[in-house]
Amino acid sequence: QVQLVESGGGSVQSGGSLRLSCAASGYSVSSACMGWSRQAPGKAREWVVTIYSRSTIGYADSVKGRFTTSQDNAKNTLYLQMNSLKPEDTAMYYCWAGCGRHTWGQGTQVTVSS
């Protein structure tokens, strides 16, 4: 059974940074088909990052150059480093795993104030 637990969210001012973590069990973060999505209040869930393979990672245009995903295989944890945060980055952030049907974590809230 795949379980994903996000952490690291919080409140920051515009221009600040946060690093989100996604601790995985039942699924190896060294595998492909993992990623991050986010959902702002009243909006649809938005794709942020997809790890298609170790050498192919896709970022949404809105976060490209500011967000970077990485993993610690020993800890089986996926990270999302978020720099130069903007108020429009405010959302609940979720990690997901699995090709096709995804397993989702419970989410971690990120709030960016101007």
Describe the protein's architecture and organization.
With 114 residues, the protein is mainly beta. It has strands at residues 3-7, 10-13, 18-25, 34-39, 46-53, 56-59, 67-72, 77-82, 91-97, 103-104, 108-113. The radius of gyration is 13 Å and the shape is globular.
Portion of residues in beta strands equals over 45%
Q: How would a crystallographer describe the biggest sheet?
A: 7 strands, mixed
Order of helices and strands: EEEEEEEEEEE
Q: Using only CA atoms, what is the Rg? A: 13 Å
Distance between the termini: 40 Å
3D shape? globular
Averaged pLDDT:
96
SS class: mainly beta
Runs with pLDDT <50, length 5+?
Answer: none
Helix tally? 0
Fraction of residues in helices? under 10%
**Secondary structure: number of strands:** 11
Task: List its traits.
114 residues, 7-stranded mixed beta sheet, mainly beta, 4-stranded antiparallel beta sheet, 54% strand, 0% helix, 11 strands
Topology:
Layout lengths: L2 E5 L2 E4 L4 E8 L8 E6 L6 E8 L2 E4 L7 E6 L4 E6 L8 E7 L5 E2 L3 E6 L1
Parallel strand pairs: 2-11
Antiparallel strand pairs: 1-3, 3-8, 4-5, 4-9, 5-6, 7-8, 9-10, 9-11
Summarize the structure.
0% of the residues lie in helices and 54% in strands. The protein is mainly β and 114 residues long. The mean pLDDT is 96.
